[in-house]
């Protein structure tokens, strides 16, 4: 059983908001949000780590590519716990990389590098860690998407209102790159 806390970013959270306090969270019981067809679950974020890193999972069905974006101040890790995910990354010199990651594989994206991904198998799960000098971005998912208490994927994809794309990403160190072209084969 996990405790519930009130937090400034949501009325009920399974994560204590004060840093320096040990805590434990049962599988899937972190702060959850639906965004498009995916479920994002945050287990640790800026409030708990003094803005040094976050830890979250992303689960989803096989689908389209997550749009190209970058994080000017954040390094991001992709560890594939289940399924398969194709990761696209462009380094700061313009060289592009594409790699199919399967369970147990790891991908690293340096700050300010355009990247995107596509879930290649149903029921894939990414374990993500992000860190950087500018803070953490884990609350992006529930602010662009919608908080949920459901444990599974959304019944219907949650598509944000268009005006949210203009404000929410910048608040959380996410820069969408709508004109970015991948020259890789994916």
TrEMBL record:
Q: Where is the Cupin type-2 domain?
A: 62-119
Q: Which InterPro entries match?
A: Cupin_2, QDO-like, RmlC-like_jellyroll, RmlC_Cupin_sf
In which domain of life is the source organism classified?
A: Bacteria
Q: Which residues form a coiled coil?
A: none
Concerning Gene3D superfamilies, the annotation shows: Jelly Rolls (2.60.120.10)
Which PANTHER family does the UniProt record give? PUTATIVE (AFU_ORTHOLOGUE AFUA_8G07350)-RELATED
Please state what the protein is called: Quercetin 2,3-dioxygenase
Species the sequence originates in: Streptomyces liliiviolaceus
